[in-house]
Design brief:
By secondary structure, this protein is an alpha/beta fold. It has helices spanning 10-18, 34-43, 54-62, 72-75, 99-109, 123-132, 156-166, 192-195; strands spanning 24-28, 46-51, 66-69, 84-90, 110-118, 168-179, 184-187, 198-205. An 8-stranded mixed beta sheet has the order 3-2-1-4-5-8-6-7, with helices on both faces. Strand 2, helix 3 and strand 3 (66-69) form a beta-alpha-beta unit. This is S-adenosylmethionine-dependent (SAM) methyltransferase.
């Protein structure tokens, strides 16, 4: 995977490598727009986003992005079927009240979805809970129980089971371990549910075949 610059997170670099040049992309919970800007500049992607926080929306607009301020669960309803090639939900799934509804909406408005989330089954999380009896805090899950925006905690295995239950297909997946504030990382192939800090999945409707 090419080095896409020091400021972008490693998981976003990996997501970028999965997106074809010249495609259309909607970023759900797009944050400050780092991925969208990169895709526009490096892959000539037509990118837009939805973000609820006003300061982040302003940051996106300052970078020339087309962004809507609002709740992703509501705003996606306004898009027609197959409006995009990709819908990206990066490190936001764990903050969604109805993840199955949002996944279905993603796969209605986009040909493929890309989802990433922190792995609650990482060994450090397990050891903290076992050893201290307190809700774990890590670089990927840095909040106290009373102020965390994360209302869902899931593992890589949980998401794979979720795919079977909800009825979508996992087209591509990667387990990664990050460091240096998430700007660097590597793929985890050995016992990923134990050693990966994040999971990244490309998903599609059941009828789609595995993307090579």
């Amino acid at each position: 995977m090419a080095d896409d610059g020091p400021r972008m997170r490693f998981d976003l670099k990996l997501i970028s490598s999965w997106i074809k040049p010249g495609s259309t992309v909607l970023g759900l919970g797009c944050g400050n727009g780092d991925l969208m800007v990169h895709l526009k500049e490096e892959k000539q992607v037509k990118a837009s986003g939805i973000e609820i926080k006003e300061s982040r929306v302003a940051a996106c607009i300052d970078q020339g992005l087309s962004v809507i301020q609002g709740d992703i669960n509501e705003e996606v309803r306004d898009y027609p079927d197959n409006a995009f090639d990709y819908a990206v939900l990066s490190q936001t799934l764990q903050q969604v009240y109805a993840p199955d509804d949002l996944i279905r909406s993603m796969l209605r408005i986009a040909r493929k979805g890309i989802v990433s989330f922190p792995n609650f089954s990482h060994w450090r999380v397990r050891m903290q809970l076992l050893g201290t009896g307190h809700v774990p805090k890590t670089g990927e899950l840095p909040y106290e129980w009373y102020n965390t925006p994360n209302i869902r905690v899931l593992s890589l295995k949980d998401f794979q089971g979720f795919a079977r239950k909800v009825g979508f297909e996992i087209l591509k997946e990667a387990a990664v371990r990050t460091c240096e504030n998430g700007t660097r990382g590597r793929l985890v192939n050995f016992m990923p549910n134990l050693f990966a800090t994040y999971g990244i999945f490309m998903i599609g409707q059941k009828t789609q075949k595995q993307e090579k």
